[in-house]
Design a protein that fits this description.
alpha+beta; 8-stranded antiparallel sheet
């Protein structure tokens, strides 16, 4: 673990009569808070830590399609754009939009190369999948992104069979636009394969935060990407239930500040938030990959920056200080943020 990371979240256990709760786990990580000009506003740990972005970069993976005029040419509206940016729960509302996207792209579900997994709706609602249930690629949480990939191929007459190849024209376009939106320094990007088999990219946390600051500003921002970022952010603001799903943390965060916050989690302890009115982007990475700790730390950052109201703090309390319960439903502890934000040091 890098010595630059800091403890951001603790979990406790205990509470027996006459005894207080004891710290059981400590989750280290880093935070970057950046404005749309690229200025580091606040941080914890190492804001330059190069982290795989996982699903937090879905809005930027959608940029090549939007910049090519894809929404108008294929009849994609805000619902389809929201699904391109989604880690969805495979609820009926999600599956219907993905099916329509594939139809407009002239692609069958068999073209999807994202693989299968148990839909996120089960874990989010506490339900168990039927023992004989079989799932398809359309139910993968990334199927909206992949349907958008196939739509880009349809626009450009590019081969669909190899659309996930690192050197496929689509993936080259994604790397170019990600680097542009997030101002990734030369040589700072590292690449690997995500859970859905698409190329994923590791960039400095402050670069990811910058991308989210610009996503939040959308069409009000500067630069050639602003109109396209505006289309994507407007879709995410309009349809947070499609970006996430019932009972999910990103939906809870976005509903706490409608039209103001965009929240997007990534696997293995990554969380990004765009704050529209403040023009800020927040990027969090928990180094042990704990998702609960990532969202707890991110909400603490919002609070530390003075961006939450009393009503919002109450709405987000179950995520900001989640109770830990055992199999009988007994409260046995909680998670809590211990992150301390630092203002950047002035240059000598």
């Amino acid at each position: 673990m890098s010595p630059m990371h800091e403890i951001l979240v603790e979990t406790t256990r205990g509470g027996l009569p006459g005894q207080g709760e004891h710290v059981e786990n400590r989750h280290a990580g880093s935070v970057a808070v950046v404005d749309a000009s690229g200025r580091l506003v606040a941080s914890a740990g190492d804001p330059d830590f190069v982290s795989f972005t996982r699903s937090t970069i879905k809005p930027f993976q959608a940029l090549p399609f939007v910049l090519a005029g894809g929404p108008k040419r294929l009849g994609f509206g805000p619902r389809e754009l929201a699904l391109m940016c989604a880690s969805h729960s495979a609820e009926p509302m999600h599956l219907a939009v993905v099916a329509g996207m594939l139809e407009r792209a002239g692609a069958s579900p068999a073209r999807l190369q994202c693989g299968c997994h148990v839909p996120l709706r089960f874990a989010a609602t506490g339900a168990s999948p039927p023992p004989d249930e079989r799932f398809t690629e359309v139910e993968n949480n990334c199927s909206g992104k992949h349907a958008g990939f196939l739509a880009w191929c349809a626009l450009h007459g590019a081969p669909m069979d190899g659309y996930l190849g690192f050197d496929h024209p689509l993936q080259r376009a994604i790397r170019e636009r990600l680097s542009q939106a997030c101002e990734v320094p030369d040589g700072a990007m590292r690449s690997g394969i995500d859970g859905c088999s698409a190329p994923n990219h590791a960039i400095p946390l402050r670069s990811l935060a910058l991308g989210y600051a610009r996503l939040g500003r959308g069409a009000d921002g500067d630069g050639a990407l602003a109109p396209a970022l505006g289309e994507l952010s407007a879709a995410m603001f309009a349809h947070p239930e499609l970006v996430s799903g019932t009972g999910r943390q990103d939906l809870a965060i976005m509903r706490a500040a409608p039209g103001e916050w965009i929240a997007k989690a990534g696997a293995d302890g990554v969380q990004a938030i765009a704050v529209r009115s403040a023009g800020l982007g927040i990027a969090v990475k928990i180094t042990d990959g704990n998702a609960r700790a990532a969202v707890t730390a991110a909400i603490a950052v919002l609070d530390a920056l003075g961006l939450t109201s009393a009503v919002q703090r109450e709405a987000l309390a179950p995520l900001a200080r989640p109770e830990i319960r055992n199999a009988r439903g007994l409260r046995v502890g909680e998670a809590r943020s211990v992150a301390v934000l630092n203002a950047p040091r002035s240059s000598p």
